[in-house]
Design goal:
The protein is α/β, with parallel strands linked by helices. Helix content is 61%, strand content 13%. It is built from 10 helices and 5 strands. It has a 5-stranded parallel beta sheet with strand order 2-3-1-4-5, sandwiched between helices. Helix 1 crosses helix 9 and helix 6 crosses helix 7. The longest helix is centred in the middle third of the chain and has 16 residues. The chain is globular. Bound molecules: BIS(adenosine)-5'-tetraphosphate. BIS(adenosine)-5'-tetraphosphate binds next to helix 1, helix 2, helix 3, helix 6 and helix 9.
Length: 199
């Protein structure tokens, strides 16, 4: 089972991914978490990525694809993988498709969180107060939304065209309410087939 949790900045991808990971035993691969860990350790990747993230821009595709290529095989060895924050551009999606094809796999499901922009901005500004993340300033949030609409949104159409199951989820309620919507999907389509074949 290869799933993607998708949505604009602050839509709750990381929040829901943690719940999905523990409910379904999927390996959670978050490119945002990996990059923040590199920044915290002060590695060369972290130094390059940190500046870009703090400006609200997307880290170069080559760097992200190399990171995922290095971690995907181990993640794929288990019950399945949940990709969080990746792919974020069409080039990343094409690179992912090629990596999966080489293993005889493909993306099975995209869960896309739908939240109005005003709510996203409010959530991220609140997180800025609580966690003080460098990329949660008003100016940076505007740039991240711009990148999302300009470069990331197209990834959904890429998978729809391939016939991948793409499910839009109302991401506006409390985290548990949103997770309830996701759980109700688990009986549907390829997710159900994959869950049955995994048990
Ligand atoms: P991410 O770590 O993916 O950051 P995000 O989009 O802000 O996170 P997410 O949607 O997961 O929000 P969360 O659950 O935390 O990326 C950060 C940066 O890394 C990017 O801007 C980019 O620079 C770089 N990057 C990462 N991947 C990349 C890639 N593939 N290519 C290039 N660059 C890449 O939720 C946000 C807040 O809302 C939290 O405070 C949470 O508590 C709250 N919240 C969640 N659900 C809620 C709910 N239902 N109701 C109310 N609040 C909620």
């Amino acid at each position: 089972m290869i799933g993607i949790i998708f949505g604009p900045p602050g839509s709750g991808k990381g929040t829901q991914a943690a719940r999905i990971e523990s409910e379904f035993g999927l390996a959670h691969l978050s490119t945002g978490d990996i990059l923040r860990a590199e920044v915290a350790r002060g590695t060369p990747i972290g130094k390059e990525a940190g500046r870009i993230m703090a400006a609200g821009d997307l880290v170069p595709d080559e760097l992200i694809v190399d990171i995922v290529r290095g971690r995907l095989p181990e993640a794929e060895a288990g019950a399945g993988v949940l990709l969080d924050g990746f792919p974020r551009t069409l080039r990343q999606a094409q690179a992912l498709d090629t990596m999966l094809e080489q293993e005889g796999h493909r993306v099975d499901l995209v869960v896309a969180l739908d939240v109005p922009e005003a709510d996203l901005v409010a959530r991220l500004l609140h997180r800025a107060e609580v966690e003080g993340r460098a990329d949660d300033t008003r100016e940076t949030i505007t740039e991240r939304m711009h990148e999302y609409h300009g470069r990331t949104e197209a990834v959904l159409e890429h998978y729809r065209k391939q016939g991948v199951q793409v499910e839009m989820i109302d991401g506006t309620g409390a985290p548990d309410t949103v997770f309830g919507h996701i759980l109700s999907l688990a009986g549907k389509g390829r997710w159900r087939e994959k869950r049955q074949s995994a048990t």
